[in-house]
Design goal:
Blueprint (H helix, E strand, L loop, with lengths): L5 E4 L4 H14 L4 E5 L13 E3 L5 H11 L3 E4 L5 H6 L1 H21 L4 E3 L2 E2 L23 H20 L3 E2 L1 E3 L1 E3 L12 H11 L2 E4 L7 E5 H13 L11 E2 L3 E3 L1 H9 L6 E4 L3 H7 L8 H7 L7 H16 L2
Parallel strand pairs: 1-2, 1-4, 2-3, 4-5, 5-7, 6-8, 8-12, 9-11, 10-14
Antiparallel strand pairs: 11-13
Helix pairs in contact: 1-7, 4-5, 6-8
């Protein structure tokens, strides 16, 4: 059994719930402390140590780290793209202050590793939209993207200046049946499965040919843990690795669903999120992650659709 003791901050979100469960399988239930500003998510309730923690409260975080003997922190607390645009100043404060506090705590308490997720939101209209390279022009269009790019630079700075082992991934849109969407622009690709089963129709807030990089949550969780377990010498960038699996449009995901639910229909009513999506890549080049630490996705669109519908049917009792 590995002796690392992990704290997840923001464990109630879309990534946090599944990451907490997966990490507990790897490190042991008692060695993974989940925390969030609210009460435990149903999937985390009674499944291991849990603490109510505000990511902005540096003193409470330090106290918990000392009390639990924490050696690693996964900082997932953030306001996402669509939610962040409704209150940019709040998004910046939450996303940046929580990171800087955690990096400082990492140096002070000599933590072995810190994980902090970035996003394809760091890319903008001036970025090459097809096979977006690992290193390219980065001009984010949203406060979420701005905070993520600034955060990548801070992670690199703390690694170079203090030797802090910080690791990061630029997640594409993430699709999961276990937890609800969290206010992101790619959330249509989660909502569409729920609506397909419930009402056999869906109105997309993105246009039919809007291609975005996507990934099934199973792959994202596995990739995150593989990154964190990779030997330090294999981590060649201390900003964030591009991570990719598939790229599709609302029209294509609808066609994939229709293979299982033939009478499912979709229409389109683009809203403010269309502008956000238009500034993002259509596909991602993640060859650096594949070469450096062996990343490889397992799910494509059709086997993800089959798995999503199977699990959602069981969940809602269809």
């Amino acid at each position: 059994m590995k002796q690392e003791k992990i704290l997840i901050i923001g464990a109630g979100g879309q990534i946090g719930v599944e990451l907490a469960l997966a990490l507990r399988k790897v490190y042991g239930t008692d060695n993974v402390v989940a925390s969030d500003i609210k009460a435990a998510h149903p999937l985390l309730k009674d499944s291991g140590p849990y603490a109510i923690l505000n990511a902005m409260d540096a003193n409470a975080t330090l106290e918990l780290v000392k009390k639990e003997g924490i050696t690693q922190i996964y900082l997932l607390a953030a306001l996402l793209s669509a939610t962040g645009e409704k209150d940019p100043k709040k998004a910046w404060e939450i996303n940046m202050q929580s990171l800087l506090q955690t990096l400082e705590l990492g140096v002070q308490e000599k933590l072995t590793k810190i994980y902090w997720p970035s996003s394809i939101a760091v890319f903008g209209r001036s970025t090459p939209h097809h096979n977006t390279p690992q290193e390219t022009v980065i001009e984010p269009q949203t406060v979420y993207g701005i905070s993520k790019y600034a955060g990548e630079l801070w992670c690199q700075y703390y690694n170079q200046r203090w030797g802090l082992d910080v690791r990061s991934l630029r997640y594409p849109g993430l699709i999961s049946w276990k937890s609800e969407p969290g206010g992101g622009t790619t959330d249509y690709a989660v909502e569409i499965y729920h609506e397909a089963l419930k009402n056999k129709k869906y109105t997309s807030f993105l246009s039919e040919d809007t291609y975005l990089p996507m990934m099934y949550m199973d792959d994202a969780i596995r990739g995150t843990i593989e990154l964190m377990e990779a030997p330090s010498e294999k981590i060649k960038t201390r900003m964030a690795y591009n991570l990719s699996a598939m790229s599709f449009s609302p029209k294509e995901i609808a066609a994939s669903i229709q293979k299982h639910i033939p009478d499912f229909t979709i229409d389109y009513n683009p809203d403010f999120r269309q502008k956000i999506a238009d500034g993002w890549p259509k596909s991602i080049d993640d060859s650096a992650a594949r070469e450096h630490w062996g990343w490889k996705n397992e799910f494509d669109l059709d086997n993800m659709t089959a798995d999503m519908l199977l699990n959602l049917k069981a969940k809602v009792g269809h």
